[in-house]
Automatic annotation (TrEMBL):
It is an enzyme of class 2 (transferase). GO terms for molecular function: acyltransferase activity, transferring groups other than amino-acyl groups. The keyword ATP-binding does not apply. Residues 84-234 form the N-acetyltransferase domain. The keyword Acyltransferase applies. Keywords: Acyltransferase, Transferase. This is Putative acetyltransferase. Pfam families: Acetyltransf_1. Its EC number is 2.3.1.-. The lineage of its organism: Bacteria, Pseudomonadati, Nitrospirota, Nitrospiria, Nitrospirales. It comes from Candidatus Sulfobium mesophilum. InterPro entries: Acyl_CoA_acyltransferase, GNAT_dom.
Length: 234
């Protein structure tokens, strides 16, 4: 019921686990004791927001809300974007992509969770981008020095957009729309029928952006965390 997040544990040099489901009260107590014995530093879980009783149970045992997310869905069909040059990125673009991402995801759960320092949250996104470039199942597209997007196929008919970023000075100029249009074209050629993207519920700018591109809300989720060792940001 606790799955170690090996990549996260290695990156942050602290053992991190995820609850694969929310158990009953007595089982949750046992899981927390087991996690302490197994030297976990932090536990996290994510589930649909409509399960209020589970939020209350987790809060009883010291879990806290670290993120509220909205998952959007859209049919894959051609999207008319502005005439902006978008190209596929490769490993040679890693320095550029890391520079673009710097300070870009301050609304993310990693930046808002007291378990992670600011530098750790930044390092996560830097590593995430490099991993995306190394992963043959993920495609990354780039608008030179201004923005990028990553996408991957989840199944035969479903796709996902894990990351979208446009630097502050270039937002509102159509770059995000051009990146989404490129992704829709790529998914369409791959035979994908629907695509999903997740954003923070309190990121009003992003919410309006996806709504304006005909994405529809699929569901709302909550991410919760519990610090087992090291109570404050170091």
């Amino acid at each position: 019921m606790i799955r170690e997040l090996a990549w996260d544990s290695q990156l942050f040099k602290r053992k991190i686990g995820r609850l694969t489901r929310i158990p009953s009260d007595d089982v949750l107590q046992k899981l927390i004791r087991r996690a302490l014995k197994e030297n976990y530093h932090y536990l996290t879980c994510r589930f649909n927001l409509n399960r209020v009783s589970e939020i209350q149970l987790l809060e009883k045992y010291g879990f806290y809300v670290s993120d509220l997310g909205v998952v959007w869905e859209r049919k894959v069909d051609p999207l008319s974007g502005p005439v902006i040059s978008v190209r596929g990125a490769n490993l040679n673009d890693a320095p550029t992509l890391k520079k673009i991402s710097s300070g870009l995801f301050k609304d993310s759960r990693f930046h808002n969770d007291p378990f992670f320092t600011y530098d750790e949250a930044e390092r996560l996104y830097q590593a995430w981008i490099v991993n995306s470039l190394n992963d043959t199942d993920i495609r990354t597209f780039l608008v030179e020095k201004k923005g990028f997007i990553t996408c991957k196929r989840l199944s035969k008919n479903k796709g996902d957009i894990p990351l979208v970023g446009v630097i502050a000075g270039e937002q509102g100029k159509g770059i995000g729309s051009a990146l989404i249009a490129e992704v829709m074209d790529w998914f369409g050629k791959a035979g994908v029928k629907t695509v999903m993207v997740r954003t923070q519920a309190y990121n009003v700018k992003a919410m309006n952006f996806y709504k304006g591109l005909d994405f529809r809300v699929k569901y709302v989720d909550v991410t919760m965390g519990k610090i087992l060792r090291g109570e404050e940001k170091r």
